[in-house]
Specification:
By secondary structure, this protein is mainly α. It has two domains: about 90 residues, Helix Hairpins (Orthogonal Bundle); about 40 residues, no CATH class. It contains five helices and no strands. The two termini are about 45 Å apart.
Amino acid sequence: MFNLEDPVTKRFLSAATMVLIIYCIAVPFYMMVEHMTLVDSIWFTTGSMTTAGAGNLTPQTTVGKLFTVALLLTAVSIFFYHVTHFGQFSERTIDPHVRKRIEMLRNLTSLQTGPVRKAELKKIRNKMGKSK
């Protein structure tokens, strides 16, 4: 069903697990502290996590407001963390010519940002000569 060795699958499952954990914490919290119904808690959690915030529900207690701030920061951070990592995997689907150019740019960047051994420099020059 799932290939758990595939990095894309691992990242997807990691993101889904984190979102599920947030729901498992936030929904009961809003039900107990803010006295929302199950559906309202799910609605508010989803609206907060997607930053859509319909505005028809708002936390009334100070604890609820602070928890919502933490929820927003956590959800947005998780989203951006996973978006940046999914970009790495899309590189596998790029055609070989573009992949070779990307590798060349990485090599050039490493030349500019840090010490490079002579063997690495020779390898980079050989790659650049082959791509012309």
